[in-house]
Amino acid sequence: MGALRRFGLAAATAVVLVPLTSCDTGDPAGFKQNAAPQPAPPAQTLELTPAAEQKDLPVSTEIGITVANASVRSVALADAKGRLLSGQMRPDNSAWIPDKPLDYKGRYSVTVTATDGRRAITKSTSFTTMAEPQRQVGTGMYLFDDHTYGVAMPVVVEFSEQIPEKSRAQVESRLFVTTTPAQPGVWHWMSGRQVTYRAPEYWKPGTVLSVRAALKGLPMGEGRYGDDDRKATAKIAGEKLELVVKNSNKHIDVFRNGKKVRSMPVSLGKASTPSSSGTMVIMDKQESTIFDTTGEPGDQYRVQIQYAQRLTWGGEFIHSAPWSVGDQGNRNVSHGCLNVSPSNAVWLFQNTHVGDPVTVKGTGVKLERGNGFTAWDLSWKEFVKGSALPVPQELLEPVPAVAPSPSVSATPSVAVPSPTDSIN
């Protein structure tokens, strides 16, 4: 019986092995499976602007790119001599921007390749640029290469003529700011002749600001074009210095990184010529300058002033005023400036930067919008409303206005106008 059982087991095993051996040599009926058909990959599309052989285009022309089911791998823009131009994609990948403006009356060809990682698609186009326009708008930027500024220094671009509202979005789209470390910001049109950029809060100490106003040849409305392409790379100081001026006690408190390090008496504007209340920014510093009011209404004189730091275009400065030392800390006698003693004026001059914030409180007269670098006198909620372009949702959330801490523990630029302040 045992032998039969062993035989039966062996026979059963043999029966099972036969079809397994057959599977190694073919697909017997009952074992073959039909593979599911693979869907065709989605079609790739790539469209470029300008369209082929367009003529008389601005030298600010960008290469517009519309791509589907692929990503841009390369952009090759060449001039008539075959020289390749460098450039960068916009953050939203909608266009490729040359690093420099194109030449007037130049011919260019461009080839763009996009890929999904398996397949590639390539398109080409060509175009020519216009002759140099006769009507050009002067541009300037209040930022100098290799300079160090205070934490409240805005990026300010000015124009010699009014930019119509309908043209401001296009102008704003050609203003680029890169910060290291990253601190996203927004542009705000103070007027048709000035646009200002800042972040929700003061720049972090040590930030590097790289700015390009890519405006050469850019249409600016009414048949006018931008005059130049301007760049600057500057640094923010390694400390946050803030000045707080209170009319109530007639003192200037100086905060360094949130800690009060000095307090000094001051005399502000008298009742007939009050100082402005609001957050200003030191715009310019002159160790010695001339205040000249001849030909202006009111007091007229021409006098030399020491250690002057400009706060407004209207002529408000912090400066040395030895003639009012007895009034400083007690009464206001100036024409709007902040009078300090010679020794305090020297200390401030040696410790402050262009771009440091100065907040004046309690004078009863509000700082006029655009009278100096007034970006920080607006709340963030107000500031973002001044952009001509849509503001990203993540930047729309209101941020508390930046206030000084209560703690007690490349490039050509528009020249700063000569001081025309009354003696203060």
UniProtKB/TrEMBL annotation:
Source organism of this protein record: Catellatospora coxensis
Any single Gene Ontology cellular-component annotation: extracellular region
InterPro entries registered for this protein in UniProt: Big_10, LD-transpeptidase, LD_TPept_cat_dom, Transpep_catalytic_dom
A biological-process GO annotation: cell wall organization
UniProt keyword GTP-binding present: no
Pathway, per record: Cell wall biogenesis; peptidoglycan biosynthesis
Active site: H319, C337
CDD domains per record: LDT_IgD_like_2 (cd13432), YkuD_like (cd16913)
Entry keyword set: Acyltransferase, Cell shape, Cell wall biogenesis/degradation, Peptidoglycan synthesis, Transferase
Pfam families xref list: Big_10, YkuD
GO molecular function, one term: acyltransferase activity
Region listing for Disordered, in residue ranges: 401-424
Keyword Cell division: no
Protein name as catalogued: L,D-TPase catalytic domain-containing protein
Domain L,D-TPase catalytic as annotated: residue spans: 241-361
Domain of life: Bacteria
